[in-house]
Here is the input.
Amino acid sequence: MVRLFIGFAYLILSVIICLPYHLYLWLLSKKDKYKSWYKSWIFVRRFFKGLLLISGTKVEVRGMENLSAVPQDKGILFIGNHRSYFDIVILHTIVDRPLGFIAKKEFKSVPLFSWWVADLGSLFLDRKNIRKGLETINQGTEYMKMGLSLGLYPEGTRNHADEMLPFKTGGYRMAEKSNSPMVLVAMTGADDIFEKNKPAALKKTKVIVEFSEAFYPHEMESKERKEFYNSAPAKLQEMLDSHK
Here is the structure.
């Protein structure tokens, strides 16, 4: 309970105190989006590292060499399983380049926090409106062409079961149309930090994060690309099962 209180206070105070920096990033984005994303990523990952320190979380990373093999100026579409809000926190402390996320439209209405999410280059997806959803995907494609990496959770919601939910694959075209690689991200243990705790608490735990090799959908023939898209859930599930 003490960790939870400290973590919550750290979160709220940091967001409020750093509002002037948010304003600076917003103004910078009007002139140079990538520079704004880069500065936001550096700032937010330091903040997230502090949050993980408070929670007592230890992270084991596997496959980091697969990220290093992708040029730094290249955006990556990360495809991951989604178990916790800490998925995003942890991924930001590991990934070696500016990173935004495809978030639910509902998160856009969260005061203060949604501003920082947007600073990172994140986009808010309306899954109930096909036209607006397509606009978001097209915007994400343009961002990736500029070198921004994006995290996508095709399950569409947090899932605490051993088996993943069916994937929604519309976001894959962001990698395909921007000539960017896709990397699968398997993460286990993140929901043990907070979501699984009754009563509510932040608990010490170990999280395993594994990155697959980079796949390049735009270099595949149509049939091969379709087969890869269909096989992505099984590949990710195999990675998750190897963590047990």
Q: What stands out?
A: The radius of gyration is 17 Å. Strands lie at 57-62, 77-80, 99-104, 123-125, 149-152, 182-188, 205-215. The chain is about 45% helix and 15% strand.
